[in-house]
Amino acid sequence: MIGQTLGHYRILASLGAGGMGEVYRAHDTTLGRDVALKLLPPELAADPESRERFRRGARALAALDHPGIVSVHSVEEAGGLHFLTMGLVEGETLSGVIPPDGLPTARLLELAIPLANALAAAHEKGVVHRDVKPGNVMVTPEGNLKVLDFGLAKTTVGGAGVGLKDATVAHTRMGVLVGTMPHMSPEQVEGRPVDARSNSPLREHEPERRR
Question: Catalytic residues, which ones?
Answer without folding.
Answer: 131
